[in-house]
Protein 1
Amino acid sequence: MNQSTFGHIGPGDLSLFTDRYELTMMEGYHDTDHVPTATFSVYFRRLPPDRGYAIAAGLEQVIDYVETIEFGESAIEFLTDQGFGDGFLSYLESFEFTGEMRALPEGTPVFPNEPLLEVTAPILEAQLFETLVLNQVGFQTLVATKAARMADVVRRRGDGQALVDFGSRRAHGTDAGLKAARAAYVGGFDGTSNVLAGERFGVPTHGTMAHSWVQSFDTERDAFDAFADAYGDDATYLVDTYDTVRGTERAVAATADRDVRLGGVRLDSGDLIELSKDVHGIVGDAGIVVSSGVDEYFLREFFDRGGVATAFGPGTALTTSKDAPDSGVVYKLTAVERDRASSPSMKLSPGKVTYPGRKEVYRVERDGSYRYDVLARRGKRLEVTGEPRLTTVFENGSCVYTPPDLGSIRERTRRELETLPPRHRRVREPETYDVRISDGLETVTRETEHAIRERER
Amino acid sequence: MNQSTFGHIGPGDLSLFTDRYELTMMEGYHDTDHVPTATFSVYFRRLPPDRGYAIAAGLEQVIDYVETIEFGESAIEFLTDQGFGDGFLSYLESFEFTGEMRALPEGTPVFPNEPLLEVTAPILEAQLFETLVLNQVGFQTLVATKAARMADVVRRRGDGQALVDFGSRRAHGTDAGLKAARAAYVGGFDGTSNVLAGERFGVPTHGTMAHSWVQSFDTERDAFDAFADAYGDDATYLVDTYDTVRGTERAVAATADRDVRLGGVRLDSGDLIELSKDVHGIVGDAGIVVSSGVDEYFLREFFDRGGVATAFGPGTALTTSKDAPDSGVVYKLTAVERDRASSPSMKLSPGKVTYPGRKEVYRVERDGSYRYDVLARRGKRLEVTGEPRLTTVFENGSCVYTPPDLGSIRERTRRELETLPPRHRRVREPETYDVRISDGLETVTRETEHAIRERER
């Protein structure tokens, strides 16, 4: 048994993290010398159910990917075995990105049809990125959005409760566990249970006590005594192993007997809302951590019913985005060079319409609130006073953007969400935010569709 | 910008892929010298909705993890900063597994309360593994199950259609994309679009054509001509960019004009079932690949309505297990050494009952069909003629098990599923398979619960 049976994915492996057809297309473009400059746009066709917005996340990982991608010896060897030709493989051996990338900064609310990312490059370069970019941006955006919804409920209804990601065990693999912790922090969480996310991204890590600790002692009281001895002041006791109320009383007694301060208790089963009130009567000012089945819908009910807590530990619902595990984000060709000029392009597949061409997103704010967005053609002067939102990330293949630190991104999310009217932030049936299509873009869309219908008649 | 901003997880990093509370517990066990031998069991409390079985997967990755886990210099440094003590960190520096692990081989159908995995070891060793084991086994089992459901529909209703995983872009991160390809193959798929899964696990890779190829030429016909020139015989043409039927006619014409054999066409939008019949009339014996929104429910409808295809490319539904993105698999302490003898243990948290003690799973087959399972105490002779299913994987910390190759695992899944009566394999409301609790285990469960209630009175 060698180390590789786990399936680790190192920096040199991301070049092969792509759908085979991307390489097939690339080889075709390469071998027929058909390499027009093309623009691909990453966007939501529609937001997942009950989402009034999404929070852009994952750009930093895309930047690192584009900057470090390489086809090493073993990758080339494998592709040779798979039947790819020598000419194309020589090209891959010296692959590097030469194009432009623009993006919405992480932490920005995004709405349907707005580019999260726009890549303009020789078509075979841009083609390669599709799979990995969707995989990273789609997932992190999904989790940042889910986290932002929970953080928003807590900010509006709570009194400063902490939100900590407890979901690594339920995440879909290791990368998901790590990136969910990052994306949750972007969305407004305060920390994670995942230690590696602390080491890798500086997300604050938190942890309490497991049922196994309690079970490994003869009695719950013995377990709490030992915990108080080992951890002293401010530890948190898991109290639901046998009976939540009695467990809480024992945690209070164990800490009192040892003269250490009770940090708090964690509730993990039963009617968490009623129990939180009962337990509050016992622990007073000490912490109450609620950790089973927490999501934005639960949180709303929790506050409606007068639950009492100092922290929440969402798990499954957060890291799998359980009610909407699929972002639906797509990576579509929207422009291609014809006769040396960029020409808008779109598919006509039913129900899957694309706005063609390179774009800009303007966000119009009045009296401290976002009113509507305008989706427009890039580089056309617009008669609106909104702020253009896409930032240039790569120019001529070089990164010209320094990603902010994670704390600043998190702060941006908070600030932006506060500027978005609450009716778009409801957790059920939010009102649709208005994304207006500029007159110019409407015209180009009609013209492009007409031109295609003529050509393909 | 350095390479680590992507967040790669190498072999040396998995030790930190754990919830902080696992390390907190471990430190407590270590520092108070409370290190009883404990047994943890990994199992489903209940199967996800509409699942009549699950297919065990991910064991090979767990083995690799346990064999290679280490706390290197940077991990220790980070844990020092996080406040863990020197004594405990010295222990971690030389951490190795000394215990036993038993498991259901990959490709085995598993039912609620049956151990997918059972770890018996000094409690602090077994505690560490919880997060990563659930993360890997939970996810792969989820995807292998989803894949098996689709493969089962195709085997029963189809005529040898291939199933290829097209879902890497929708998977939750890179590890999920890679492991979903592996797990789908375990479940009965024939291949994946993910090139890295080919390189890493030998899963056959497949790919066709993208919309961008078609859009990058002046007309669809130009695009197909160029594709026929570049790829010759047996290529597959994506025909829905503008109009599926016309696109199909153009693919036929382009290949005929060039005297190359049409491999097939791919349909990716519209009423795929009706279109597949229309297209079949045009392409005859050539392939028809259907690739949008494919899952087991779609497949059943596809065959009900007389759709025609040679291959299916499920994506999102497969890699996110969209209708059930959470396996719900747990890792629970079921026995702990007291007075030098192993003593069964369980939580009493409402709705979360555990069968205590170390276990064996017997599967009773009659006339070529599985009739019921018996969940029993380990090492107690049982009055059933079923075959014990748990295999020893680690003994005294050494791996004593050689995982079969992936093809053999896939074959096991197929064989096992054919032995499971069809009423348990229905994709909606399957009949519950009977898992009987042995008399001995029933008694121990009652006694353990009684003993805890007495102790904790």
Protein 2
Amino acid sequence: MPMAGQRRIDLVLESVRRLLRMGATPNLLNLLQKQHPADLAQIFSELSERERHAAFNVLVEKNGKLAMEALSEVGPEKGAQLLALRSAEEIARLLQELPSDDAAALIDHLPEELSAAVLVLIRPKIGGGVTELLEYEEQTAGRLMNPNVFALAEDLTAGESITALQQARDVEMVFYLYVVDDRRHLVGVVSLRRLLLVPPDTPLKRIMTAEVYSVRVDTDQEEVARQVASYNLLAIPVVDAENKLTGVVTVDDVIDVIREEATEDIQRLGGVAGDETVLDPPRAVFPKRNLWRLINLGTAVLAASVIGLFESSIQTLATLAVFMPIVASMGGIATTQTATVVVRGIALGDMTTSVLRRVLWKELWLGVTTGAANGLVIAAIAYLWKGQLLLSLILAVALLFNMLIAAVVGTLIPLALKAFRVDPAIASSVIITTFTDVFGFFSFLGLATLLIRFLL
Amino acid sequence: MPMAGQRRIDLVLESVRRLLRMGATPNLLNLLQKQHPADLAQIFSELSERERHAAFNVLVEKNGKLAMEALSEVGPEKGAQLLALRSAEEIARLLQELPSDDAAALIDHLPEELSAAVLVLIRPKIGGGVTELLEYEEQTAGRLMNPNVFALAEDLTAGESITALQQARDVEMVFYLYVVDDRRHLVGVVSLRRLLLVPPDTPLKRIMTAEVYSVRVDTDQEEVARQVASYNLLAIPVVDAENKLTGVVTVDDVIDVIREEATEDIQRLGGVAGDETVLDPPRAVFPKRNLWRLINLGTAVLAASVIGLFESSIQTLATLAVFMPIVASMGGIATTQTATVVVRGIALGDMTTSVLRRVLWKELWLGVTTGAANGLVIAAIAYLWKGQLLLSLILAVALLFNMLIAAVVGTLIPLALKAFRVDPAIASSVIITTFTDVFGFFSFLGLATLLIRFLL
């Protein structure tokens, strides 16, 4: 049993570094060739840029197929960077080692001139599969699918089908066998196991299932993933507008989509680009990180300007400044909690407008109850600390109000963004907590200012 | 082609509600029977509790298998709630419609007495598969696997293997055929397609691959998912401590794990329980939501007490109170951004201690550059607003400092939590932003207090 896991990879990584330093190319090659492409990908990611290029060069000279498979697993962006130092001819030759979908993704991330040169060279060779894939929009089934899909003609028998399968070459993982008519319209599906269980002269039409889940070339990849995951499929056929079979998306690609989409949601909620990784060079990350920090600065200035309205009250009673951030902070956690559940609910398909009233009710209920509970606690703390009963009560009331605002804002803003076809995860804490920051300062300082003569 | 997607489900949902209101049981049954279990699960989730019980009751009387499959898709927790109103005898009978892993998950979520009664009834019937599964720890491969795994004896030929497969019953999705020795030790794997491509008298030993990725019954489900995803597997065999084949985890279960783990990470980062869903009843959610709000109240009071140290400075110069939240807020976005990328990096396996120095360097670089950029902007705004040059400079310096603190805290806290075997996603904004809140108030108000005589 191959030993798996991070510890093994760390050991290999250490050896790769040592062999690179020693210049022991044959030993290095030997070690690299023993790795699974996915493990190589992780090793490449953890090497420094210089080491990565050196290791890739050693491997690609002797075992182009493995090197390219590892490159695919590294991801198209970083994979293309490793390829980009080579000539268009060499790249075109190496890309032939990959399935069309992986090749297309890499070409798409090469520098523009290079990718144009590679496409010219590759067209006559692989018969256009790659070029056509690149014509579909990004993040659609068309981009994700493998166009080399094995299909059976509907007038075959079970025995003929098995023979056809035995003669087929270069077919990616076969578990569902799709059945097409003479114009390649998708008409059914049959499993390999079912073919084996019936007498060889059984017509395919009799044993196939005519109800096939399929997606269109322009279906969004998230919807593709949703269907594969919901219906527990291993693959889903992709058809064009006329229901002609044009490709297949397999479950391993769907897993990548699910992980990417989850990363995107998590990171956007945290105010980070959806595709940032821990090892991205800081210069590349700077623009997006700084954009959100600038936006946050803008919202902070907005909140400060609300405080500015009450500067004279604070001048009169500096204690107000001490308690002021508490109300805003409590609104912040409440909006973040609500928006997080709502955004995830939208992604998982649970949060739709048909359940809006129930969700809003739930959040308002939570706003009232937690607002009352926390309001009592903070009023007690403030009273023990400063001994001002009225101030403590104002604090509690402002906190409760802010929790209710949080419930409404946290539920509605993500839904509104979705309605405008903006990713709801963009409703990161930066945007939504602006409301509760501003309202929190306003309600607490406003109430205190109204009642200030009783506070002195 | 079955019409898929949310729109279709919404239409069915509407009809289900109407038929329930009309009491048109035969029509309702007819409609429900046409749905895929996954679609039924979504419909059940969107119905109110009363409607859900009514619809489930109609279906379970006539089509127990479909009803139970839908229940499984609803998830073990809510599924168990729907079952819990029935007698132990009936539940035991219905559970036989499900694979052992799904049945075990449901039993595990029944009220304690009921689940004990069901287990007694079920033991003699399914031969213990369910009972044994429940002995493995939650969230391990043992809990996730299907124990009914089809295996071939290593001394068979290809032809005999196909015959064995044809005679096997009740085998979940077969694509990899595992090969075992006479004591059921896992010794190899062969694909169905490969069996078909060789002459029937070829010994299995000659065509099987002896290197099989496998996991142990006690392997954490996240590690199972990582291996299936990295190595693009459709299933992974599960072995016991002696390498005996005891089950198989299929890719559809892995997809569920990946989605659950992503939901857990997203929600914990947002200060919400990992398994909360938008439609959870508010009463059930209250304790955990309120716990985080109370913790947040504690950290807010801590920050307020820092401000309290400088109350006399604020009394002297109320303008300080206006700008004070800006420094804290900028530290907040910076820690959130950093911690989000680091937490996700840990989950994806990219963030390890071996790359800590590179990540810390990246975050510090970003802290300096964005700190300088935003510091300049806020200094200009403050100067234009209040006309106090020194105050503007203090603001800029405090902001820069806080960005550096954010870089360190956001990187180290999640890693430290992981080292202590706590989920790093618990480093939700509530915990980590405490540091930058406190430090932000302290540095800005502290600097201003030191230099206060030049500010007046």
